[in-house]
Amino acid sequence: MAGCYSESWTMKDLTDALKNMHKDNKKIVVPMFQRGNTIKKYMTFPNKYVDDELIPNEVSDSVFETLGLGGSEKSIKSKIREEIVKAIRKFESVDEIETYDVAKAIITELPTNKEGIMDSVINIMKPFLKKYKDNYEEISKSTIPVIVYSGDEDSLPIIFDRINSQGTPLTQYEVYAASWPLDKKFGICNDRIIERVLKKYDSLADDEYSVDGYKRDEVRLSKTVSAFEYLFGLGKHLNNDYEFLYIEKNEADDEINPMAFELVNACINEGRDGIKTLYNEILSIDVKLFETRLIEAVKFVEKIIAPITRFKGNTRGRNSLLYSKFQILSMIACTFREKYDLSNMTVARRSWTTNRPILEKNMVQHFVYDIITDEWSNGGTNKLHSVSKPNKYMKEIPKVAWESALSGWFEQENLRNEKSKVASTKNADIVILNCIYLSTFTALDQLSIEKFDVEHIAPKEIMYSLKNFTWIF
């Protein structure tokens, strides 16, 4: 019989339950749609969360005065704090922290000839480390409300929705994860997507969670996933495996990348609200064929913008992104919809032979024009859908619109009045200069190790080197 009620657990109870140590015959089993839980990570490895801000100023001030070292006071105090943090992080648990070892670490990195320095530093560190340990003990004994649920897992999305109204809101994609059916699976071929899905659950398993319904070997061998898992893995795949789509950076393995949800919905549905039940459309189509056609559109757009985005210019490392996520997703979605009918993706539309060269020509113009006019600075998913009704990339940009856009850009540049500090080059500046120099740079220029400063009459590096030069007239 289903039931849902509240209990009070200490932080230690919660941590033990996350490690599969039962409390009153209860343990925490994480549903496959659940996001991580930071509490367990902190309680298990609290010392990893120590940083400079945790060290009181009076501690670093006292150690600095005791050491009596010459040099920059600011940098020495910063070094003291750094060594305290590093020393604490070496201990696996709070109870293992030894004051002597922390003091020794400081003195080793900041040696001094003063007598009795070890005892002095130990005496400074003792009160701080005692307070640090006491705080952890207090946290571990503090109680928090826990919702205990027993019953059918299908009812969990409703429970989540009720709890979520009072706490930290779930993202809309986490809501989809909870509400879309997990038992309706289909096969896919893309091993990269499968690996991304496995990494999501492995990251939870690595934290010693018990993930309900997760059978790693079975997923890898059968290559069957739910609609949510598929879009989760596809988003990770697109973001990580296509350089021009590397838009969301430093995501955790279990963190949802919304890219595939937004892109697939734009390819399939007329409006953004269709994403709520997007799983129905995914379950009704040939997903393997759809993915093949989607990747064709991805590569089509990548090839169109490559001359501008990959142009060497003044690049010192990796090319920076000149565009927004929704701009590039709109180009991919419009390409897909222009080339294929969802009801018959085995062949391209009859109009594609005629429309392809038009799309190639106009799309690169829109790409540059939209960046110059900052077209995609707002609008998000609404604009992502509106550009395909009708396909704006099939329309050539009028000459008068170009004149207005370039005049506006030129006027903005003339308003700049920077004397002491020069602002960074804007995306519009880079795109315009890249377009100008595309026909000037040779293949040898592009492939050489030489550095170019195409946006400066006099490169800043040269100006800096000459700032102390004495000119004689």
Task: Throw out a few tags for this protein.
473 residues, mainly alpha, two-stranded antiparallel sheet, two-stranded parallel sheet, 21 helices, 54% helix, flat
Radius of gyration: 29 Å
Distance between the termini: 95 Å
Structural class: mainly alpha
Q: From N to C, what is the helix and strand string?
A: EHEHHHHHEHHEHEHEHHHHHHHHHHH
Helix content: 40-55%
Low confidence ranges: none
Major beta-sheet overview: 2 strands, antiparallel
Strand order of the largest sheet: 1-3
Tally of contiguous helical segments: 21
Which outline best applies? flat
Q: Averaged pLDDT, please?
A: 82
Account of the protein in words:
This protein has 473 residues and is mainly alpha-helical. The protein has a domain at 47-140. It is 54% helix and 5% strand. The chain contains 21 helices and six strands. The chain has helices spanning 11-18, 38-44, 57-67, 73-89, 99-109, 117-141, 156-164, 172-179, 191-206, 216-222, 227-241, 259-268, 278-284, 287-309, 325-339, 352-372, 380-386, 399-414, 427-437, 443-447, 460-465, and strands spanning 3-10, 29-30, 143-150, 186-187, 210-211, 224-225. The strands form three sheets. It has a two-stranded antiparallel ribbon. It has a two-stranded parallel sheet with strand order 2-5. It has a two-stranded antiparallel ribbon with strand order 4-6. Helix 1 crosses helix 2 (38-44). The protein is flat, with a radius of gyration of 29 Å.
